[in-house]
Each structure stands twice: as C-alpha cells, then as structure tokens.
Amino acid sequence: MGNLAQGLCRKVVVLFIVGAALAFFVAIRAVLFPFFMAYIIAYILHPIVDYMETKGFPRGGAIAAVYLIMLLAVTGGIFFLLPAILADLNRLLELIPSYADSFQQFIKDMEIGYNSVTVPEGLRTVVDETIGKIENVFLRVVEGFIEGLLGLFSQVFNLAIIPVVSFYFLLEFKKIGSFLLLLIPVRMRTELAEVAAEMDAVLKKFIRGNLLVALSVAIMAAAGMALIGMDFPLLIGAFTGLMNLIPFFGAIISVIPAMLLALLQSKWLALYVLGIMILVQQIEGNIIGPKILGDCIGLHPLIIIFALLTGGHLWGLLGLFIAVPAAAVLKVLLRYAYTRLV
User: Fold this and answer.
1) How far apart are CA 110 and CA 147, in angstroms?
2) b or e along 149-164 (b: 16 or more beta carbons within 10 Å of the residue's beta carbon)?
3) What is the mean pLDDT of residues 1-27?
4) Residue 190, class by beta-carbon neighbours within 10 Å (0-12 exposed, 13-18 middle, 19+ buried)?
C-alpha cells in the first residue's frame, strides 16, 4: 500500500511540474520565438556540421565554416537580389495610392454594371452583403500585411540574436539530446529514442524538401512574371515561394495579389498571370514535389486540411506554416501511444 501511495504521489508531482512548466512557457511565449527559430536553423544545419566533424573538423570550426558559407550566400543574395527587391518594394509603395484609386474605380464600374441589371430585391441584398464582406476581408488582409511588416521591424533585436543562439544550439546539439534522454525513465528510453528517430526522419525530409521546393517555385514564378512583363516579378516570386510552404491553400493565397495587380493593368495580363501560376503549380505538384518530397509525412489530404484550418485558427499565419509538420509528429506520437495501450 505504501508503494502504491508513493507511486501515486510521484505521478502527481510529475504532473504538477509538467503543468507548471507549460504555464511558464505559455507566459513567456513571446521571448521563446528567437529560441524556437534558432533551434529550427540548428536542426536544419546540424547534419552538415556533423558530416564536417566526421571529416576531422573541430565542431566549433565546422559551425564557423557553415556560418561563413551562409554569410557569403546571404551577402551574394543581398548584393545581387536585394537592390532589385527593394526597388520593386519602393516602387510598389509609391504606386499603392494609384493602385487604390484604380481598384476603387474598378469596383465602381462593377457596381454601375451590376445596378443596371434587373435583379430581385432579396437577391440584390444578399449580393450587396457578400460584396461588403469581400471588401472587409480584403481590407483586413492589407492591414494584416502592413501590421506584419511593422511587427517584423519591431523584432530586430530578436532576429539579431537568432544566429547567436543557433550557434550555441549547434555546438551543444548532441548534449541537448543526451540531456533530454536522461529525463526519461530508463525502461522507456529505447522505445522513445526510436519514436524520436522516426519523428526526426519525417521532419528532416519535410523541412528540407519543402524549402527546396519553395525555392524552385519562387524561381519559376519570378521568371514567368518577368517573361510576361508583369511588374514586381521578384516580389511575386518570393511571395509565391513562401506561400508554397503552406499545402493546398498556399497556391490560392499567392495567386490573389498577383491577379489583383495584373487586373489593374490589363485583363489579358491577369489571364497570363493566372496561366503562369497554374503552370508553376502543375510543375511543382506533378514533377518537383513528388521527386523531392514523395509521401514524406504519410497524412491523408483531409487530415492535412483539418490541421491547416486548426493551425490557422489557433496561431494565424504561423499556424499555417507549422500545422502539417506538427500533425506529422502528432501522428507518430499517437501511433506509439496506441501500441502501448492496446
């Protein structure tokens, strides 16, 4: 009886500590963002560092070499691409007032055409309400984009410390894993190590594969926009590649701003943009994606959609990016729990 009470007391203490830790992390979640991003970077880079270490490099030297390569790549990108992207962004900011006027005129022309058509009063009320909702959604999207940019600039310090924190994560990557393993009861270590290895394999292929696919999509979209004479090809390409990290919905999200910009210039240009976007997504979905990713997460499309909707509802845009890998990890954990219980 004493052993039973002691075991129950131990479980209560463990649950209390876990609950307190979770509450603490929720309370300081804003502070955790740079650590989270730093760990993601370390997670992506650590196989390269490990490989260099096996070739005789000291771990610190291997990390420094990887950082140097990244710095050269970023510097090259800044030197060759950033001026063009900033020029596009600056020109877009200058043209926003004229684009807004053109968009308002476009809406007025649509309203004139709509009002000239005989429509039952009840249906007209429904259509008017729907148009009003669409306008409100568009305004919220624009406001959210501007707030996101301002929020990004306000996080300059957090962004600056990410490489530093990532360096220390890379330096102690193996020790961190060993320390976490020590926190697990001895009888469960082998099983949980296997589960962790399975999650690691899924996440590695998903993260690296998706980044490569997104880069390919960004290049194809930018080249396509430049080919048809669309304004801001680099911005559109970068946005399309970024949104491609969101399964299913990313393709729709990326085509809307490009179509709106093109529509303000020419209806034919908007059709060309739509055609380019469809072509890019077809190449990505049927050729590039299957070759690089395959079925790396093993989730049914309905589960992916549910995960995306849940992530978007709980954490907004960030939730859309992390929903699918989180669902893949949860699948591995649930399968392990099921095998333990059944």
Assistant:
1) 30
2) eeeeeeeeebeeebee
3) 67
4) exposed
Look up the pTM and report it.
0.66
What does the pLDDT look like over 136-171, one tens digit per residue? 665 665 555 556 555 555 566 667 788 888 888 888
CB 137 within 8 A of CB 129: no
Summarize pLDDT for 255-310 with one digit per residue, the tens. 888 887 787 777 788 889 889 999 988 888 777 776 666 566 667 778 888 888 88
How many angstroms separate the CA atoms of 261 and 5, rounded? 69
Contact status, residue 49 vs residue 62, Cβ threshold 8 Å: yes
Domain boundaries along the sequence of the chain: 28-96+124-183, 189-342
CA-to-CA distance for 188 and 194, rounded, in angstroms?
A: 10
* Amino acid at the residue 76: G
Instruction: Give, rounded to a whole angstrom, the gap between the first and last alpha carbons of the chain.
Output: 27
Structure tokens at 97: 């007032």
Looking at this protein, which amino acid is placed at residue 171?
A: L
d(CA 210, CA 202): 12
- Using the predicted structure, report yes or no on whether residue 2 has a pLDDT greater than 70: no
Give the residue from 293, 275, 266, 295 showing the smallest Cα distance to 220. Answer: 275
What are the angstrom distances between the C-alpha of 198 and each of 20, 108, 297?
Answer: 29, 56, 11
> Do residues 213 and 293 touch, judged by C-beta distance below 8 A?
yes
Using the CB atoms, write b or e for 6-33: b if 16+ within 10 Å. Answer: eeeeeeeeeeeeeeeeeeeeeeeeeeee
Q: Give the angle 221-224-228 at the CA atoms, nearest 5°.
A: 140
Name 235's Cβ contacts closer than 8 Å, sequence gap at least 6: 85, 88, 89, 92
